[in-house]
Amino acid sequence: MKHCAVSQILFSETYTVPAEQPAQRMFGVLPHGKSYADRLVNAMANGYLFAVVESICAREMQAHLDHNEETIVVSSMQSQHRAPILPGALVTIDGWVTGIGDHEASFWVRASDEQEIVCEGEIRFAIVKRAQMEQKIQRKCEAIGRRQLFAGA
User: Fold this and answer.
1) Over 60: is that where the pLDDT of 3 sits?
2) Do 141 and 126 meet the contact criterion of CB atoms below 8 Å apart?
């Protein structure tokens, strides 16, 4: 990872919340959420917002990685949700690097709609060896395959 360049990352992105991202829809497809999803407010699910924030930070880091040797994974995310985000809202996501280590980088992010700050917090990425991550993924795929192979027996 190119530490000096990563430490200078700063971004401001806008995102229009699609109608397909309310909590009702997200929870409605989850087995444990179907029974109450229709009682949730029509607002963006935090999970979607977290995915948007993660994707922007990850994109910003891509130019600073050795893609043959490294990949990134979120190691932690802490946030404070402050207000609902409605479908159709224009959300501005601002972020900057707050810390950098040998194998990690931390971002502070703030999301605001046209009225107020809706969420802010820290997302931390671990920079890991690509080969090790690919080996772990392969082992898990094989384990799932074995389980499925014997499930019908």
Assistant:
1) no
2) no
